[in-house]
Amino acid sequence: MLQAWRGGDPAALEELLLMVEPRLVSLCFRMCGRPQDARDLCQEAMVKIIQGLPGFTGRSRVSTWMIRVTMNVCLTDRRRGKIRRTTSLDAPCGQGTAGEDRTLGDSRTSDGEPTPAERVERGEDLGRLSRGLARMEPEQRALLILRDAQGLDYAEIADVMEIPVGTVKSRLFRARVALREEVEKG
Amino acid sequence: MSRHPLENDLLDLIEGRLAPPDRVESVRAALSGDRALLRRVEQMVADRRGLIELEKATLQAARADRGAAIELVREAIERSERDALIGLEGRPRKRRLPAIAAAIGVVAAAGLLAGGTTWIVLEQNAANRAAEQHKIERSSQAHMSNLADPVRSTSAPAGEAGVSGDTAGASAGEPLEPPIAAMPTWINTNPDPHAKEAVRSWAAQVEKTLAEPVDSNASLVEAGERALRRVESGGSGRLSIDEAAGLVLTRQLKFVVSASGLDWGRRRAEVLASAMRSRAGAEASADASDESFRRGELEIEVTAALDPEHAALRDALSDLQRRFGGPTGESGWFELDPAADGPAALPSLGLNDILWWSSGPSAWRPGVSVRVRVQPIEP
What we know:
The structure holds two protein chains of two kinds.
Chain A: H1 2-6, H2 10-32, H3 35-52, H4 62-79, H5 104-108, H6 116-121, H7 124-135, H8 138-149, H9 154-161, H10 165-185
Helix pairs in contact in A: 2-3, 2-4, 3-4, 4-9, 7-10, 8-10, 9-10
Chain B: H1 7-14, H2 21-32, H3 35-64, H4 66-89, H5 97-113, H6 129-148, H7 182-189, H8 193-211, H9 218-228, H10 241-247, E1 252-257, H11 264-280, E2 284-285, H12 291-294, E3 298-304, H13 311-325, H14 328-331, E4 334-339, H15 351-354, E5 368-374
Parallel strand pairs in B: 1-5
Antiparallel strand pairs in B: 1-4, 2-3, 3-5
Helix pairs in contact in B: 5-6, 5-8, 6-8, 9-11, 10-13
């Protein structure tokens, strides 16, 4: 699709971005904790991706490069103070028709049925895990998200975070310890 | 006899990557004698599974609403097109643009010859003058902002223009900035008055931005943040990282950043230290309120876990070296020296110095601490 877009097919760009959108939205959501902020961040990242695509040389996988741009947007945004480390990933993003709190899953559906996200996150352990993750330092949180949620290997994480592979390992381990500490706080 | 497993062993165990079998046996034996540690490791395995599960659920939710995705993508495309238009219309054309373009070309060529950072020479397209003017206009703007952030062009890995979020706007056909240190020489030898004026203007912008207080200037801190992301190591330290790591228990290390022409090193050190403080947290810290910091001399405390091979410490020092490596080729350099005023005696080490992390972050203390002094040297 990238080649098609470079070859002059404008529709290929939309198709390419649609393909990665769920992954990037999820990344932004896990980083910032609020669905609307996640969408805004994702859109900002996509603008940068579009602007940067002509200079993309293919040194890394395009998906890794996009994750990197998106992570940079999330971390930069956090530094500007828009993302608070105390923001809960379970934070409501509005209210439903019955006055109940709505979360990311709610915001993406409108039929009133519980979403897969709701069903899974209802579990007490996962809820604690989610809250613990939200309380972590963003850069530590980023490592866990890249490794466990996005499934990147150490070299790819090193590429995204621009740190040596050895540093990825040591920081990742500390991040796991820190997450456990946060989860135990409840 | 079992030994306490190291971080890497435990990380591999948690992620199901522990191999070969004798390593598995060794770690298993070590854990069997420490039920608390074993339980903690099991919980971390469960945490990893939980995170994977959460991601699956979030992805399913995100994929469920195709309409929202299409809307988001189309808005992004429209925004990028709008940004491009504003870039064209938001700034009046100036008569000296061709001179600026020429200046960019000359400096870019000089940069290429000097083996400097990646340069993309401006393409001339006589058939489409309007498009060319737009390109030059955008290049000039990029130039201004890049020079306010001197390390930006090199913050992306070599060979991949615009890969970071901050540099995504730099694309093929757009020139990047000249090395700041090349300016004084170039400005004195170039006969074109318009080009001189353009370069002076950029340099003045850099000076103005850097003169503002670090703590209150978010853009400077952001510039430092980008600097921290540099991967390239451009220094010529006297000590290798291995040598420095070997000295760390007995000596202080002096990490020197020198300055040249535009007093670059001192201010750069301030910015980097500020950014480092905000980013690195427990791994490095510097006190910006300290008077010596204000003078451009600061001590950064690097903390790292102890292990027999000093692996974490070497990582920390490598990281620091990279961070301060910067575009120092012509504007300065760094040195990693043993300092004379360091403690002479080796601290005694116990098991807790190795397993400090196992009691959780609230109880963390550094396994070892290196004081790194950043000290400007005027040429």
